Structures are given as C-alpha cells and as structure tokens.
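Hi everyone, sorry if this is the wrong subforum. Our group has a chain we'd like a structural model of before ordering constructs, and none of us has done structure prediction before. Sequence below.
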Amino acid sequence: MNKIFAVAKAEYGIAIRSKAFLIGFFLTPLLIAGALFAQKFIGQQVDITDRKCAIVDRSGFLYAILEAANTEREKSNVFELSEDGTQKQVRPRFFFEKYSETGDPKQTEIELSQRVEQGELFAYLVIDKNILDTEKIDTNGVHTLAYHSETPTFEELPKWFRKTINQAVLSRRFENAQVDRNLVKQLSQPIGLTSLGLVKISADGTLQEAKKDNEIVTKVIPLASMMLLYILVMTAVPTLLNQVLEEKMQKISEILVSSVSPFQLLMGKLIGTVAVTLTLSSLYLASAYYLTSHFGIAETIEPSFYAWFLLLLILALFMFGSIFSAIGAVCSEIKDSQSLMMPAVMIIVIPLFFVGAVIESPNSLFATALSLFPPSTPTIMMLRIALPPGPALWQILLSILLTGLFTILCVAVAGKIFRIGILSQGQTPSYARLLKWVFSK
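Answer:
Right subforum, don't worry. Here is the predicted structure as tokens:
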C-alpha cells in the first residue's frame, strides 16, 4: 500500500507542478471573471450606424405609417438619458426614402440592388399592392413583403418592418370590415401559464408559497454539472493513457516495475490522476458556487449535490481510467492506441445521446434504468440528481453500489492486462489478445 501511495504522490506532484496545470488552475478564475466582464461589455457594444432604406410602397398607404412609426421609435428606443443628463444614442437610426416607380418593376429592383452594392442604401423594401387581400398573399411568386439586403444577419430592421406593417395592415383590414379591432384584441387575449413548484408546509406549520420555476435551476445547472463531469473525465483519462504509453515507449515502465508491482503502478497512477482531477474540480465547483451566488440561486442547490458530484467523478475516473491505462499498457505505438481507444471513448460518449430523453422524463423507467447501468451512471445519474425533483435516495445509493462493483471489476481486469501488457513489446494489440490476457494466470 505504501508503494501505491508513493507512486500516486509522485504522479500528483509531477502533474501539479507542470506548467499546463498551473496555467489551467490559475487561468480558470480569470476566464470566469473575464466571461462575466465580457458579457457586460459586449451587451453595451451596439452598432449605432445609421441604416438608410428605400421603400417601394405599391400599397399606397403604408409609407406614411412607417415614417410616423419610425419617428416614434427614435423618440422612445433610439436615445436614452445618460447619468449626466445628456441624450445618448443606444440603437441605430433608420432613414427611409420613398421610391417612386416609373417603369418596369424588375428595372426598379436592379437599380435599388446596385445602390445597395454601392453603399448608398443599406437595404430596400418592396410592399405589394395586394397586401390587404388575404387571398393573394405570397402567390404566383409575388412576395407581399420583400426585404433586400447584403447584410441578412442584421435583423433589427426587418423585424421592425414586419411588426409595424403587420399592425398597420391588421388595423386597416378590421377597419374595412367594420370590425372593432380593440374589441377583437380584448376577446382574443391569450391566457398565460406560469410554471410553479409545489406548495409546502414548513416544520413550524407555516405555509410556504410555491416558487416560480427558474430555467437556470431546472435546465442550465443540470446540463452544466453533467457536462463538467464529462469534460473532467475526458480530460483526465486520455492523458493517463498517453502517460502510460509514453513511459512504455521510453522503457521507463521497465525500470518502475523493478521496484513496484504492475498493479501497484497502475493503482498509483489512478490515485494520482484522481487527486489531480479533484484538485481541478474543487476550483470549478468553487467557481460554480460563486456564479450561482452571483445570480442569487445558490440556496436552491443542496450541499449534497456537490458531494454526489465528487463521488460520481471519483468512480468515473477509476472506472474509465483503468480501462484507458490498460489500453496504454498493451500498445507499443500511438497509432495502435488510437484504434483501441475509440470503443472506450464511445462508452463514455453514448450516454450523452440520451440526455434529451432523460431531461424530458428524469424519473421514467428508461432514465432510471440508464442511470443504474454502470458505464452510463456517472453522467446520467448526475443529470438526474440535478434535475428536479431528483431521484429517490435508494436509486442513488444503488447506482453508487453497482458502479462501485463495476469499477472494482474494471480495475481488476485492467490490472491483469496491465501486468502483462506493460512489459510486452512488438505484439500487435487486439481485443482477442486482451481477452486472453484477462483469463491468463
């Protein structure tokens, strides 16, 4: 046992003193702080360049309405008062030009397109004459509203056109039909649905009102926790494979097994990798707690959530770390490890394909069975724990037990493969050979 911890201590010391680890460890808080600052900074960065648009109004009445609505928009949305009491422009201004057609409509579009290409116009809008006729909308290749621009990613102007023109057209249609639009709007007012939790009675008998569901708590945190566990595993175990393979290629492993047994070497490397990953995860969890506190939702996350995360992470690291270590031990070249590593990677990745179904019904028979199936337990059970209302305690404990037993089996099998593979040279690895080594004495 002392030799195992000696190897683990050496592996941990080498890892945490590496430049990559130190940069990653100290850079993470800076990245989180930078992300918060960037969100705030980017939110204030709005392109307020004026947008000039030509309007071909074949309806005969919409241009005046658009001009009036644009004037109102500029008063209410384009400028706002700054702290020193001055007007500050926060949105781009729109300038409209009424284009009067004198010839062929196709010639009109050619001319306006050329003006857009030359930078004289930002876009142009063509309004069809049949815009009030509900039976002739977008038929025979004629577009009721046609917005032309070289910059389709700028959506503020076309969205404003769509909303303003639709309101004006609906008003005119109701007016022509002699129907009170305000009455129709009042009678067709939709009923909103508020998603709430459950009403609870506290220990002292007082009634606790149901709280409104928070999408960050119900969706973002579960997905983020599952992905963090997945990323930590996928960062650690391939690195472990590369370390084992590199030591074997450089004959370092032959020197090591002269002082410790292959199983002791394997366990030492696994424990060292787990310790390094736990060091990183402690930083990530502390950062997660800071972010949830920043958004005022820290109290919605039970302390047990962090404990389950660390326990499932440890099991996943031992489970998959032993598999990847065995792969590294049997290979003599990098290309051999790449071919053998793909099935092992798929074992980790496949559970992610079922995330949508688990989120939709976290307590369904399928989700429960998947979370109890050891290879997928770490990611799926972590997701179920984070999703309200969460699995029953017996399901969590059973998943831990099954995963623990499966992890012990993986370590035992990997130990047998590691014992033979770490000293074998010149043999092309295959799954048949690995199976033979497992049952060898």
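For your construct planning: Residues 105 and 111 are 10 Å apart (CA to CA). Strands lie at 51-57, 79-81, 87-89, 94-98, 123-127, 145-149, 200-201, 207-208.
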